[in-house]
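writing this on my phone so excuse typos. first protein, seq and then structure
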Amino acid sequence: MKFTLLLLKAFILSLIFFPSLCIGQKTAAQKEQTDSLKTNPNGFLVRMQNFAKQSAKESIADFEADKVVMVQLKVINDIRLTSQDAKGYLKTGVDTITPKVKLEVLKADYKTASDGVFINAGTTQTYRNLASTKRIIRELLLDAKKIKSALEVKQKALSGFHYRIDSLSTAPELFVFPKDSISVVDYLRTLGAVAYETAPVDSTLKKANLHVQKLINTYNIAISQLQNSIEQVEHYEQNMAFSTLDRELPNIWQAQLHFRPFLEIVQFSTIKNLLTLKFYLLNNIGKLALIVLLIITSFIYLNSLKKMYQSKGLLNKELDGQLAIRYPALSAVLIVLSLFQFLFISPPFILSFLIWIICSICLTIVFRNFITSYWMKVWLLMMVLFIFASAGNILLQASRVERWYMLALAIAGTLAGVIILNQKRYLELREKWISYSIAIMIGFEIVSIILNVYGRFNLSKTLFLVGFLNVVIAILFLWVVRLINEGLLLAFDIYTVQDRKLFYLNFGKVGNRAPVLLYILLVLGWIVLMGHNFPLFEFFSKPFLTFLSSERTLGNYNFSINGVILFFGIMTASVIISKIVSFFASDDHLVGSKDDNTQKRGLGSWVLLMRISILSIGLFLALAAAGIPMDRITIIIGALGVGIGFGLQTLVNNLVSGLIIAFEKPVNVGDIVDVDGQGGTMKSIGFRSSVITTWEGGDLVMPNGDLLNSHLMNWTLAGSRKRMSLVIGVAYDTDLQKCKEIIGNIIETEERILKNPKPVVLFEQFNSNSIDLKILLWTRHLRENNSTKSDLIVAINEAFKKNGIKIPFNQQEIYLHKLDE
């Protein structure tokens, strides 16, 4: 447009100065003007140059003005959009009520946690109360930090909106006004509208930012108070740990110090324990879900074992060696909770108490009527003593009532233990180690009595609980090991096709007694559970845990011992799980009946792929857990590529062949095959090699590459059927039609012979001394061929005898020629 206007101006000037270009005739004035231009040409050029400069200035000014207008429109639009975003965020993203409410709840929980430690401290601190207080305050500290982080994110967003609006509002282009008065008025109206829209939002942003900052400051104060409280509690714990034998209370017969009312202690202890349990469970939802999943899996396994034993009539009334499958659900709960309670790091006592009570109830029902009534009563007595001792341990503050309660219960436990050991009925015990745990209980309770009498309350209370706890835990662990061993042994006996080495246990040598390794793990678990009750345990274990978790550097790689252990642990678990999957998926009962070939192939065809998937997932999880960077993995893969190129061709060929077999499925676990004249059943398909159980009973290990390249005949793939032929010779004078009818009747009555395809009886040839008949038929399953053929021969032989049909045999006549003397 500007270029067009410029051309128009130039045209008008040309008409003024050069009218002869447009009009043919020249006037006198024009001639005079032309003559003056000819005589003074520099004047015209000067005017044209001045005109060009003026036009260029005007064009530049117009361009700059247009550019300013475009920037102004963009800035105004950005201000409006930012204001709209800020309004939306202020409506939905800024919630200051919830942090306030949570802060009040946090203060209330902190007051509950402080009870008995910082307020109403009483005459002495107890280890259990300090531990509960520290655990609650730590959880409160984590919650406070999370809320503070969320508030800081909100503050950052509010500050970002405010900064963006301010930076847009101070753009220099907004203060450049148009030269036209009408345009100036319109522009000022636009600015006024934008200011009217933005001012309330900007003011609200400032207020919200200030409010959030006040909340952050409040949380900073709360966090500082919580951190100081944790340090103070740890100081109390340290002093208690290193002054364990110091007197805390007067002797039990002396005048006692002031204690809180007993009911008040019970009330605040209950509230505090429940609060501790709530926080701990909320932070360990994943572990709880894992335990539930393991319980369900274990129940499915044990229940399937029980059904198999029931279907085969192998269950015995005495339950000897079969206790694990008596109540599969209870056994699953008992085994999983006993073993996987160690997933919970430093759990509160009330959670551990609930786990132990659930396990004890399950065990009581499982071995009811299996152990003698005497030892059943002993177990029930130990459970009752443990429950009463645990009830006292839930109390978080010392009292005179509790001291006498502990003394009476410890004396009762000591007397009960002495009487039980004096009975000497050890031969009735299913697990002999139980008597040792009762002896340990007696020792602990005697020491607890002495310490309680002489005012060493905390150590006395610890030994008082540990004495009864050690019996319950020892019995639980001993029976859990027994049930695990029984479960594996039952599977070993019932699973017949799979490779038994997958269990890593030689049950032929071990028998009904569990491996020593399980008992070693049992003792270690017993020590850990007992140690958690002593104040010194945390101080001794903390340096060890720090040593495991500390970062170390090897070259450019940072690692921790925890990460290395976790890597090998995950990989070991992956290998074991993959082999157990192969173990349970390869038996006949899992792949359907003999006639159900479709179901059979559907289950077994994915076993190798499942193993590969489990190992691959385990590898990636192990790498992630150990923090191994992926660029190191690419170096290892490159090195493996060089190795493959030079010397691992055969191994890689077998591995790839295994994958091809898994995907193409030319053969499957349980298939009846012939490989180069060697017949048998596919037992397993592994990564490198496969195993075929031959008809002679041996296991043929064949590399996957050889299996894939050999002339493989898969009878199962064709429906597990094989045509059978039987040749019979009859005498030449036999009535052939009658012979054919007799054979046909025998075939009709045989249920193992298929009617479709129809059996055929053919007269094959005239032999030297007989007419040969050939019988062609199909049996229902390949495995029935030999037995069917044997029964047919017997039946045909008897029928031929009854009907006078002779089966000739080779005869030779010998002539003896007597020579003349």
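second protein below, same order as before
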Amino acid sequence: MPTDTTTATETAAPKGTPAADGNPLYLVDGSGFIFRAYHALPPLSRPDGTPVNAVLGFSNMLLKLLADLKAQAVAVVFDSKRENFRSEIYADYKAHRPEPPEDLRPQFALIREAVDAFNLPCLELEGYEADDLIATYARQARALGRPVTIVSSDKDLMQLVGDGIRMLDPMKNKYIGPDEVFEKFGVTPDKVVDVQALAGDSVDNVPGVPGIGVKTAAQLITEYGSLEALLERAGEIKQAGRREKLQTNAELARISKKLVQLEENAPVPTPVEELVVREPDHRKLVEWLKLQGFRSIVHKVEAELAKDGALADGAAPTPAGAPAPDRTDAVRAAFNARNFTPAAPRADGVPVPSPDSTEYELVQTVEQLQAWVDKAMEAGIVAVDTETDSLHAMRAKLVGLSLSVEPGKACYVPVAHKKPDAGPSGGLDFGGDGGLLPGQIPLADVVRVLSPMLAHPGVLKVGHNIKYDLTVFNRHGMAVAPVDDTMLMSYVLEGGAHGHGLKELGQLYCGHTSITYDDVTGTGRNRISFDKVPLDKACAYAAEDADVTLRLYRYLKPRLVRERQVTLYETIERPLPAIIARMEQEGVLVDRAVLRDMSRDFAERLVHIEADVHKLANRSFNVGSPKQLGEILFDELKLPGGKKSSKTGAYSTDVTVLEALAEQGHPIAQRVLDWRQLTKLKVTYTDALAEEINPETGRVHTHFALAATNTGRLSSSDPNVQNIPIRTEEGRKIRAAFVAPEGHKLLSVDYSQIELRLVADMAGIDALKEAFQNGIDVHAATAAQVFGVPVDKVDSDLRRKAKTINFGIIYGISGFGLSQRLGIPQVEATLYIKKYLERFWQLGQYMEQTKEFARQHGFVCTQFGRRCTIQGIRDGKGPQRAFAERQAINAPIQGTAADIIKRAMIRLPDALAAAKLDAKMLLQVHDELLFEVPDAQVEETAALVKRVMEGAATLGVPLEAEAGWGHSWAAAH
């Protein structure tokens, strides 16, 4: 078979509208990008402590603009100040916008310094917004026949798109043209202002017409042609409510249009012809970069300029009157995204190995495949990735796989691509044509050639979310070890700072926009499964994934050492994929009959509850409709507390509203809550669980996500076994459907009060530590301390209150929250919290120290060194900041608990094997592990699992695990 080699440049051009010919002008929305850069990157500080995360993000955007787009005409435009001519039109315009976060304020001036250091035009105009200057310059450039690119994703600028003007979203590396504007607003760019005038803008406090959103506004403007025509003909509208809104608020709509319409004739501070890229003062640039602490960037710039002689000692000065030598290309080369992109979380950055071009080979013969296997054996490392026909690994059929042994070179091995008219695939297939495309290696041959290398201990297999690939390979008869996982490396280094998908990290670290799944399979009704993708397109997509994975490995693995995260990665995260993959493959048996009976019971009870609700409402209505329910509660029954949404015009009937009404003694609210809870259980579990049973195994195989939470906890989906409610009788019944096969029991072992034990240990609360060390009832001990009574005099009510306070404090509960939980006045609840913190003063000290650490660093740490990012800890808004502070207090506790149970999970397989016990670990639900155990081994297994879990960490208080077993999960817990 002929060999098909695909070559692609490493850094793809932005996707979208092509540029017009001519001398393009790039107008950068500086003010808009500052905030995007600030929120996109975790907190960073330069050596003197000045925050620089937004500065770094902004600088990278400028550098990419200069390097990738070869821009010759650029201007960076900023807002002058909040007050401008729009405030005279509408006094409340942007009036409710909060002050910038405290750590962003000093960066405004630094970002202007960055623009100056790169010698780019920096523009602002008093009395006008940046958008007005951009609009003015864009129109002036078009009058000269020049194309314009507005570097921004701000929706307010989309009214300018068209006639040689486009936008570029620098975060997504995507152009925005008329099609993208229509997709967002439902109208062409020339109608955007009219739609915005109707819909308003809560961010800028543009009033619009209350109750009319973007979708409705687009429909109206499309039908009537313009805002003015609509307002003049509003009386023709059939919908009475809509007609009244438009007639009543016509003047507000006209004012809103003046607010959103950009001024295209502002007095420009610099002529458009002078907005050009000029060579920077290289020494000034280097000194500025050094001041920010961007050390690796400095080294790169100095190396490039030294080649050009710009920084050489004794370099000949430029003769008087002669033009300065243009070394702008040297600066561009230093920052070319194909060669260098600094790591977002590090102010100094580190070069990422990225070749200028790629060579991707389509492997169609056994000989070609063997050659790649030989390369991997020689290199001792290979990046691997599988392509399948399903996101669920236990149902996925292998369609192909990719390998890479050095950056820029990768291959794709197709095994099950089908002809376009072939039917759907199903199950594993080691033989037969099945409508397969020609030019593919039989799966049996792929297994035979690959297996020795995949299992070889001397070859490291690197994957991104390798757990998925391990399951796919295993189901196709291929064992894989040892492995490394770039997703987990990124997760350890940057936790909740951003997502950890391969495409996102490729963009973040390599400056590379990867081919997306949608690019090769299409979207919506036109989407095809991956096994129908043509081989050349599949090769470009899949080989790129292996290539990017290997480059990420070469960048992230050394960072683990530099940032002292090796132990966390090697001892907790790296061993997990193989263990979790085995758990997912085992699955858990579910009794269909139990589910069927529960569904029937729930359905009958829902009918009765609905009848009760209708009786209390004095009429029938759709209980599941929030709008109808709100009208019943607040318009017809006249219950207190009704609040309408400014966006929808409907009453809020969320759980907090209903719970408040129920506590006030309104039975209809409680019955609606009962109806909602039972409906959720029926739809989410008793009905849906049966659909999740794998037809090949007869079991449910949940998917555990390893890098989805900020604290290190695993999360579960398809189905989500971690969200099954266990505090209500109905919720506990769901676990009765999870059963053991004949001759086995389900064994549940969970940590007892682990988070409270960790609070006592981490905060150094002597009284609580003593209670745990002596085996005293900690809630009774707390009640004695807080309420001033002897332990033996603590009754059930005081113990209940102490228990609520103990666990509430961990989550930063407020006086109001505690009052709601205990059903007591808020003043009394606040007093309880005050007494608690006075008695356990070490906890208050720990909380304040933890919040301060989070404010300084942007993250907190577990006892095992895991960094948990705390977004919004410096937010100027009180509620957001308070929420972040609660996160900061809880994350080290919850994260340490997650680390501990992971350590136990890693030790258990070897411990069980050494004891010759046949238990299978099936599920992890926060602090609990579930096993399937032969009847004869239950007690021995329970003792061993308890011993391993209790020995997973050494604390200042003892860890305790409790075990139970039975035929079902409900009976075991």
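The radius of gyration is 31 Å. thats all i got for now
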